TrEMBL record:
Record InterPro entries: Mss4-like_sf
Organism field: Oikopleura dioica (Tunicate)
Protein name, UniProt field: MsrB domain-containing protein
SUPFAM superfamilies noted in UniProt: Mss4-like (SSF51316)
Source taxon at top rank: Eukaryota
Amino acid sequence: MSQYPILGDESIMSKKKHGTSDAPVQKELRWKCNNETADSVCNFNRHYAEHSGYFLETSFLNENNEGKEITFYDSVTGKPLFIAPKGRTWKEFVDESKAHGWPSFRDEEVVWENVRALGDGEAVSLTGTHLGHNLPDKKGNRYCINLCSVAGKPQDE
């Protein structure tokens, strides 16, 4: 039995000052992600997502074509949530993400000190940001994540 995902309880997503978080999303998100979409998905949503392929409409792929590891930060808090690609190539990461319609991460790419999966598969930050869902496939856990949820800038910027 795998040690992942690390499960959290429903209290993580309890009502806070701004939906399920203490604050709205950062004012300027990376990759030209739309703030209104991001705030809705991150803080006032438990089941839905940005539309399939949204990440392809942003500058994400154009700004990351060197294939180096990228740290994805919480759009509300700026805490690191995912680092990818790990254990696979940039092309494999992009191909899998394109096939599923959202950036898709694997267990080794999750920053577990800041991320949890709830019993229904919802992936969330420990501060209450809705990230997406764990949709396991034949390779294992696959975290299908909204780009607008992980387009924040590091908290020390």
